[in-house]
Amino acid sequence: MQAEIKLSPELEDALKIAINTAAQKIVDDSKSKSNKWPMYMNKGMAAKYLGISNNTLNEWIGASSVPFKKIGRSYRFNRNDLDKFMATK
């Protein structure tokens, strides 16, 4: 059985505005979150960005499964490369 609800035009418009406002807030929050992180990160920052432990990141580095650059003894991680990498997980 399916129920149908009739809304007044005013209530329908108010709901549309509320939904659009909520959707825009999600987009804005998403954009501001990505701006909080620098383009290049060290190991500690990269682990926090990915939401994993330092040990897990070390394992991924050892297996060469996560994209990184090694400069001397330092590791650097590009935020865009990490996003692409996580999208495939």
Structural write-up:
- The chain is mainly alpha-helical.
- The protein has helices at 9-35, 43-50, 54-62, 79-87, and strands at 40-41, 69-71, 74-78.
- Strands 1-3-2 form a three-stranded antiparallel sheet.
- A hairpin with a 2-residue loop joins β2 and β3 (74-78).
- The model has no long low-confidence stretch (mean pLDDT 90).
Layout: helices, strands, pairs:
Layout: H1 9-35, E1 40-41, H2 43-50, H3 54-62, E2 69-71, E3 74-78, H4 79-87
Antiparallel strand pairs: 1-3, 2-3
Provide the descriptors you would attach to this structure in a database record:
89 residues, 3-stranded antiparallel sheet, 60% helix
- Tell me the fraction of residues in β-strands, as a range: 5-15%
Poorly predicted ranges (pLDDT <50, ≥5 residues)? Answer: none
Structural class: mainly alpha
User: Secondary-structure element order, as H and E?
Assistant: HEHHEEH
Give a count of the beta strands, DSSP E runs of length 2 or more: 3
Count of separate DSSP helical elements: 4
The largest sheet is:
3 strands, antiparallel
> What is the terminal separation in angstroms?
40 Å
**Rounded radius of gyration (Å):** 21 Å
Helix content: 55-70%
Arithmetic mean pLDDT: 90
Strand order of the largest sheet: 1-3-2
Which geometry do the CA atoms define? elongated
Gist?
The protein is mainly alpha-helical. Helices cover about 60% and strands about 10% of the residues. It is built from 4 helices and 3 strands.
